[in-house]
């Protein structure tokens, strides 16, 4: 059984040949997403009913759930439904699947491997692992799925982890001396995430390293004005200390194969 589940974009399930399995009905997709969220754990029928109908379950909910489970088994393993990864437990169901067959879990694994490589100063390995992790994303997580509070929380956590991994990759590439090629991507990322301070600071550093001190200081002023306008606070030490170091042309800011997290270092 080599099913692959992709939730980092339009919700897809594919079989061993790579053929997309047609899971069209909203309740089937929602149920499968809940089972994936609790992969390899027994999930009670009460839990599934509560989340599938979000507190407004009909009297027929238990029978409907059993029907959905049977249908989902056939959808996942049309030739042999009995070998479906969804098993019945004493008070519910369990989806047994290797975490590497779910793109969300594989993304988290690769991002963790990248950070471990960065800590070992293997910057090339870290960049490669971050690239592979981020390449798994195809759009907004769980696109096309009816989500409940729990799935929305998972969706938002994955979105935040995607942003953080992108910023971590920027740090790695800055530490590799690729500041010139990053300016365009950092400018776009900072524009699309105006209240995230870290990419603005990374942009400031990349500009400064390219001899564009005035533009680096302009990037700081833009961040300052945006934060004051939208949330009424000034940048933290992350950006303000970097601004001061740029103003005094701190020689430690120039590239010299420094460690990851240069911006955070004094």
Give a description of the structure.
This protein has 266 residues and is mostly helical. The protein has helices spanning 26-37, 45-53, 61-76, 103-119, 123-134, 149-175, 179-192, 197-209, 213-231, 237-247; strands spanning 4-6, 12-14, 43-44, 86-89, 92-95. It has a three-stranded antiparallel sheet. Strands 1-2 form a two-stranded antiparallel sheet. It is elongated. It starts with a strand and ends in a 19-residue tail after the last helix.
Overall average residue pLDDT: 92
Instruction: Specify the overall morphology.
Output: elongated
Q: Secondary-structure element sequence?
A: EEHEHHEEHHHHHHH
Label the structural class: mainly alpha
Percent of residues in helical segments?
55-70%
Which strand-content bin applies to the residues? Answer: 5-15%
Radius of gyration: 23 Å
Poorly predicted runs of 5 or more residues? 262-266
The span between the termini is 52 Å
Keywords, please?
elongated, mainly alpha, 56% helix, 3-stranded antiparallel beta sheet, two-stranded antiparallel ribbon, 266 residues, 10 helices, disordered C terminus
How would you concisely characterize the structure shown here?
This protein is mainly alpha-helical. The chain contains ten helices and five strands; from the N terminus they run ββαβααββααααααα.
Any chance you could write out the topology, listing elements then pairs?
Elements: E1 4-6, E2 12-14, H1 26-37, E3 43-44, H2 45-53, H3 61-76, E4 86-89, E5 92-95, H4 103-119, H5 123-134, H6 149-175, H7 179-192, H8 197-209, H9 213-231, H10 237-247
Antiparallel strand pairs: 1-2, 3-5, 4-5
Helix pairs in contact: 1-3, 4-5, 4-6, 5-6, 6-8, 7-8, 8-9, 8-10, 9-10
